[in-house]
């Protein structure tokens, strides 16, 4: 099957709290203060990210065991969840993920660079996407298990996942 033509190239940048601020929060120890607990045997990095709910239901925790997706797999869809934040936290060591996002206020027809940005986590970082933030579904570069924190909707609720086909985007590593 011939490869589909590339419609956009997206430059991947390192994930930092500052660069990711328009899309949500980065969950990491780096750059945050902590305080000793448990008799000094543990450091608590307190309240790094806040789950948000914008509809009935509750916040829950799930585990995603994800297969590795290669760099050269084109990006073809972005999605968003209007009624919940969505956090992804690696459960193992050195579990990097590709994060492709756009702000919640970008209309679907405008989903292209520079509104859409791509980040590579360092393998220790997690993210908490703000409600409505456009994102590519979890894209881990190594097989592994991820803690996911998001809304558990009441049974029978409509699915809170708006998808948009973006064509066929490829990735370029930042210099
Ligand atoms: N489908 C699901 O629960 N996960 C997606 O929302 C995702 O962003 O990976
Ligand atoms: Ni999602």
Automatic annotation (TrEMBL):
Entry annotated with the keyword Lyase: yes
Pfam families documented for this protein: Ureidogly_lyase
GO MF annotations in UniProt: ureidoglycolate hydrolase activity; ureidoglycolate lyase activity
Catalytic activity: (S)-ureidoglycolate = urea + glyoxylate
Matches recorded under InterPro entries: RmlC_Cupin_sf (IPR011051), UAH_cupin (IPR047233), Ureidogly_lyase (IPR007247), Ureidoglycolate_lyase_dom_sf (IPR024060)
GO aspect biological process, one term: allantoin catabolic process
Span of the signal peptide: none
Name of the protein in its database record: Ureidoglycolate hydrolase
Top-level taxonomy: Bacteria, Pseudomonadati, Pseudomonadota, Betaproteobacteria, Burkholderiales
């Amino acid at each position: 099957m011939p490869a589909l033509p590339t419609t956009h190239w997206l430059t991947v940048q390192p994930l930092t709290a500052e660069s990711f601020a328009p899309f949500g929060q980065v969950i990491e120890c780096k750059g945050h203060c902590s305080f000793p607990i448990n008799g000094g045997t543990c450091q608590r990095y307190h309240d790094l990210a806040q789950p948000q709910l914008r509809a009935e239901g509750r916040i829950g925790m799930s585990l995603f065991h994800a297969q590795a997706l290669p760099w050269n797999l084109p990006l073809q869809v972005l999605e968003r969840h209007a009624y919940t934040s969505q956090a992804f936290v690696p459960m193992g060591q050195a579990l990097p993920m590709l994060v492709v996002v756009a702000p919640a206020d970008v209309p679907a027809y405008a989903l292209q660079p520079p509104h859409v940005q791509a980040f590579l986590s360092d393998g220790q970082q997690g993210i908490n996407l703000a409600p409505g933030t456009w994102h590519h579904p979890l894209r881990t570069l190594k097989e592994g298990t991820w803690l996911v924190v998001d809304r558990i909707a009441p049974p029978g609720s409509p699915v809170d996942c708006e998808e948009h086909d973006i064509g066929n985007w490829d990735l370029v590593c930042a210099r």
